[in-house]
Amino acid sequence: MSVVFSRTKGLTEAETHYCPGCTHGIAHRLVGEALEELDLLGNTIGCSAVGCSILSYNYINVDMIECLHGRAPAVATGIKRVRPDSIVFTYQGDGDLASIGTAEIVHAAHRGENITVVFVNNAIYGMTGGQMAPTTLAGQKVTTAPAGRNPVINGMPLKVSEMLAQIPGAAYVERVSLHSPKEIRKAKRAIKKGLTCQVEKRGFSLIEVLSTCPTGWGLSPVDAVAWLEANMVPYYPLGVLKAPEGGKNV
Amino acid sequence: MTMTLMKGNEALALAAIRGGCTHFFGYPITPQNEIPEFLARELPKIGGVFIQAESEIGAVNMLYGAAAVGCRVMTSSSSPGLALMQEGISLLAAAEMPCVIVNVMRGGPGIGGIQPSQADYFQMTRGGGNGDYRVPALAPATVQESVSMMVQAFEMADCYRTPVFIVSDGMLGQMMEPVEFDNIELKEPPEKEWKLTGHGNVRKPKTIKTLMLDPARLEARNFELQEKFQKIAAAECSWEEYLIDDAVLVFTAYGSTARIARNAVDQLREEGFAAGLIRPRTLWPFPDKPFQQLASRCQTVLCVEMSCGQMVDDVRLAVNGKLPVAFYGRCGGMIPSPEELVAKAKNIMKGGRQ
Amino acid sequence: MAGIQGIPHIAVDRCKGCGLCVSVCPQSVLAISDGAVNVKGYQPAIVAEPERCIGCTSCALICPDVVISVERIPVKKEVKS
Q1: Do B69 and A86 touch (CB under 8 A)?
Q2: What is the CATH number of domain B240-349?
Q3: Which residue from B291, B242, B266 is spatially nearest to B345, judged by alpha carbons?
Q4: For the segment B93-148, what is each residue's pLDDT rounded down to a tens digit?
Q5: Which chain A residue has its CA at the smallest distance from B91's CA?
Q6: Which chains touch B (3 or more CB pairs under 8 A)?
Q7: What's the fold here for domain B4-236?
Q8: For chain C, what percentages of helix, strand and coil (3-state, to nearest 5) are there?
């Protein structure tokens, strides 16, 4: 008899506050598993960001610091520049990273900060109740665009990973998704790759994780993963946007 | 004792290194650029780190990260840059992260100008950030005092786990004076058992956070912070008195304006007028005591600022109605002359309009 | 022929009943409980057809609340011609 799947030591025993079917929980687990498997839990400092995932420090079993809205990459910079041998990651949603925190994320990548960013993109503001994010799809109905996002008024959704991948300091950028067990396995590989990139001091790494918000989207959890696959994946194509070799060698 | 002729800003920067600062994060803004420029050159020599941030918002949040892992860290900026940092300063105070923030004040409001000003007294003592918090604010009046206060600021920051402001201005930052660094004696910094290091698989994870969704817990936390602020207020008030024992008119001014007021006191004394000066060295906590203890001879307190009247509010609170408080201010980068202050003082002492 | 039998364990009281595990199970092992609620008040996932489990761990991989663990045991299966 062998245990083939059990709860990682990378997570605390706390039950999450997330809504049923919210894939934040999967992303948390993947971060925890990746850190555990790379034996990094004891040497890691995480930065939580404003949004549903602000309480991630209650769930991920590492030292963590809570950051102001959008500023996690700057906080991570401060930590990493004092403790270059600690593993430092940020865990940020799309409102936090792609809207209010664009300057901080762009310049962390620009400086080639040797940190790992887990960017959870669920195309909506979850915590505040389903408002439009920069990543909200065209036509997607949200509380602040009740008739659906109108690109004429709101622009087309921002492709953050593509934008960041072209910055010289960005070493590794990959977009993954959580809509199926197969994609979840790939997502974990990407997070491990990002952390390994940091261990090897290659520079900035970012993994964009397409995620669901069943409550904000007004869908059942099962319908939400189907919606993600059918609507988000075509606009936000999965795959490696920047390979580690392209980064600067620190 | 070796005296060196140094600009106020550069002396602040060197004093920061002598005070144990190893990391600086900041964004260019006039009139404080000598500070980051000096540290960009000198910090790497001692194994420290200088990072030019993308903005003051970036800088203050880098400060938060660096303070959270326990190093002596600082930033410097000028008035509008400080305004941009206020959310982060509220966070630093709430999370009790030790660090030093220098404000070399310039004229405002808005983008204002780049000439010396003291129009950030409110920003430095009342804050522009959200919530109930206080930040100790030290106001040097000479280049030498900039040095001693910088070292003191780092020690206070660690001692009380708080950000500390150095409130300078464009005049003090740009002026050159002889200064010496020989008598700096650093205390052993306290053990920062709260800092983040990674749990090393030997303890439970630590968290630095300020979110408290339970009102009762948040209130308790606020009361805890207030207790600390009261402790600071009781222990750290600092001021200088000049010829106040027999003074009929007592000037009060801080920073570079206090130097001008002191000249005015000397001129008035030469002409036979009994004038004196109280110079607050801490703006928060504000030194109420010397105002409360003014002799009965004193008939007026004249507050002089390079602003339209900000510290004068604290002076009035300190005097608490016992004496008339007059105000004289220049602003926008205009600097009052001793002659203006002498004229104003004479006018008051002769029973003129206050 | 030796085969693999999977044994899924569900920490029922931590389950939020989202149903993602049920939707990805290739063997229809899991189901949402019909009526019974857990301590949280959710109708949790239950192991309805345990003998069908092949131990693929798909359910555990997609469970946002990490309430599922999976074991595998080797079993002898009859070879049908």
Answers
A1: yes
A2: 3.40.50.920
A3: B266
A4: 999 999 999 999 999 999 999 999 999 999 999 988 999 999 999 999 999 999 99
A5: A68
A6: A
A7: Rossmann fold (3.40.50)
A8: 20, 30, 50
